[in-house]
């Protein structure tokens, strides 16, 4: 029997390793040839795999590290050495992946035993038993998880005065705020060698210099401790804020480690709750963070599992325009978009509000094909995997599906102005809707609501938005339409 570890299943204490002697890791390159991925994303995955190989060897495992074009090539070599071997694999979350891998193994005369994915706390069986059928509601799931896991609860009730503290968690920092420190994990010789190879071997999009992501469990643990000590206290109040020249604010930057399995969700949640128990972080921040990891991350995984393949097909709003070139070259005078795209280019990362209310919001309003946006996220972000990027982009980000959201997250420039300091430094006027210097978000927002009125007016909580739509007269609509259409042309020709 051999344990087959995929490149995002790297936790040294994963239960898949229990009782194993031999471990197989396959470094396949074909997937990375298909698209121009961010060099930090490819470098991170390959460097983390190579470090896991060395760590497992040091721990006494017999490690087979096979490099090849595809999984098929590497499995050919494996079964030549170990004919009829049984491979034990943690069930991968991507749709159809387990069946594809089983087919690859069985067609080479081997067998595949699948075990539960311990990178999540809630198993498919537990989720399905809890959910039954009907709508997917995050808040219900989250409260159930809090009680089930005994996190921030006492006798089934929430500790600290409530289930959520959203009202306290929508602040923006004062002008003289000094952002808490962000740790850097300088590449060692193996990571540098991996990054060099990635740069030479693949066509990439993004900046390789400045790579500082954790590539080992030890560094990821350190990143967790660093976050809990230095940034968690301010995570809550500033989680929706955007500040010029600040890419991390008080966010945890732990998604790449969680999604690679370098960290487990339980240790992350326990570390945050521990800070509250020691009075080292306020309940608003700790609950806000726990909600993301115990709630949203687990919820997205199950919604994806339950709604694929429909989730990834079609578009409720039928959009087909190309994603504007500014997403690739960063060429725009719009300060919020310029910042967000450059964070992705420089780090393979942008925080949640930039992803949702800038990058997705703009693509949605401009009418870009949500599937192209999904691809863009997939190649550009260090934490992107099909199971998590797809529901976030197609559900929450663009409303291509209403599988678990009742309305699109769209806004005019007003939201960006409220939550950031970008608009004061932007050449566009956030208070204007029409006219050459008007913030592009404004006309595009109203035009979007008008264009999709038939689908959206009766949807979920859109009443307030449409009450504003109803107040506009014919002349105002004509000017908005004209401005929106010019903006779409300019976005298409790359001159926004
Ligand atoms: P923090 O803000 O510190 O949050 C803590 C943790 O909570 C994250 O590390 C992450 O593991 C989890 N989390 C929070 N929100 C979500 C969510 N909606 N779905 C899943 N996990 C969540 N997250 C990814 O891991 N990979 C993606 O490819 C991805 N694509 C996204 C695309 C869009 C359009 C949007 C709106 C969100 C996306 N997210 C994705 C969710 C979220 O934005 C990131 O998890 C988060 O920004 C990562 O940064 P962080 O580790 O600093 O997170």
From TrEMBL:
Chain segments carrying region Disordered: 157-182
Record flagged with keyword Lyase: yes
Keywords: Lyase
MF-aspect GO terms: lyase activity
InterPro entries registered for this protein in UniProt: Crypto/Photolyase_FAD-like_sf, PhrB-like, Rossmann-like_a/b/a_fold, UV-DNA_repair_photolyase
Membrane-traversing stretches: none
Entry protein name: Cryptochrome/photolyase family protein
Native source organism of the sequence: Haloplanus rubicundus
């Amino acid at each position: 029997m051999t344990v087959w570890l995929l490149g995002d299943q790297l936790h040294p204490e994963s239960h898949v390793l229990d009782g194993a002697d031999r471990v197989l890791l396959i470094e396949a390159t074909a997937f990375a040839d298909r698209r121009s991925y961010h060099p930090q994303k490819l470098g991170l995955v390959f460097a983390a795999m190579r470090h896991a190989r060395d760590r497992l060897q040091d721990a006494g495992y017999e490690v087979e590290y096979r490099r090849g074009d595809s999984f098929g090539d590497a499995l050919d070599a494996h079964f030549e050495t170990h004919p009829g071997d049984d491979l034990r694999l943690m069930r991968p979350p991507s749709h159809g992946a387990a069946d594809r891998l089983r087919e690859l193994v069985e067609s080479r005369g081997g067998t595949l035993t699948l075990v539960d994915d311990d990178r999540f706390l809630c198993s498919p069986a537990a989720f399905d038993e809890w959910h039954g059928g009907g709508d997917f509601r995050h808040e219900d799931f989250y409260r159930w998880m809090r009680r089930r896991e005994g996190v921030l609860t006492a006798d089934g009730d929430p500790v600290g005065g409530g289930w959520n503290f959203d009202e306290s968690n929508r602040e923006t920092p004062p002008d003289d705020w000094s952002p808490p420190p962000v740790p850097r994990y300088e590449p060692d010789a193996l990571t540098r060698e991996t990054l060099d190879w990635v740069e030479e071997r693949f066509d990439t999009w993004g900046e390789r210099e400045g790579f500082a992501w954790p590539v080992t469990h030890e560094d990821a643990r350190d990143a967790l401790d660093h976050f809990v000590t230095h940034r968690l206290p301010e995570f809550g109040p500033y989680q929706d804020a955007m500040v010029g020249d600040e890419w991390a604010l008080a966010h945890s930057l732990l998604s790449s480690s969680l999604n690679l399995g370098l960290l487990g969700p339980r240790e992350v949640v326990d570390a945050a709750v521990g800070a509250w128990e020691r009075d080292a972080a306020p309940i608003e921040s700790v609950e806000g963070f726990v909600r993301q990891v115990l709630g949203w991350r687990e919820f997205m995984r199950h919604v994806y599992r339950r709604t694929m393949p429909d989730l990834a097909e079609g578009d409720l709003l039928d959009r087909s325009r190309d994603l504007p070139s500014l997403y690739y070259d960063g060429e725009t005078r719009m300060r919020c978009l310029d910042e967000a795209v450059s964070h992705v280019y420089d780090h393979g990362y942008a925080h949640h509000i930039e992803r949702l209310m800038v990058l997705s919001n703009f693509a949605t309003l401009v009418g870009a094909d949500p599937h192209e946006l999904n691809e863009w996220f997939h190649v550009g972000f260090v934490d992107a995997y099909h199971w998590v990027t797809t529901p976030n982009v197609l559900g929450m980000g663009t409303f291509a599906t209403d599988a678990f959201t009742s309305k699109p997250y769209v806004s005019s420039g007003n939201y960006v102005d409220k939550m950031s300091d970008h608009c004061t430094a932007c050449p566009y006027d956030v208070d204007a809707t029409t006219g050459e210097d008007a913030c592009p978000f404004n006309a595009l927002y109203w035009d979007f609501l008008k264009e999709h009125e038939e689908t959206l007016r009766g949807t979920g909580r859109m009443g307030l938005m449409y009450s504003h739509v109803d107040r506009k007269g014919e002349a105002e609509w004509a000017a908005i339409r004209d401005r929106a259409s010019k903006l779409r042309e300019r976005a298409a020709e790359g001159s926004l």
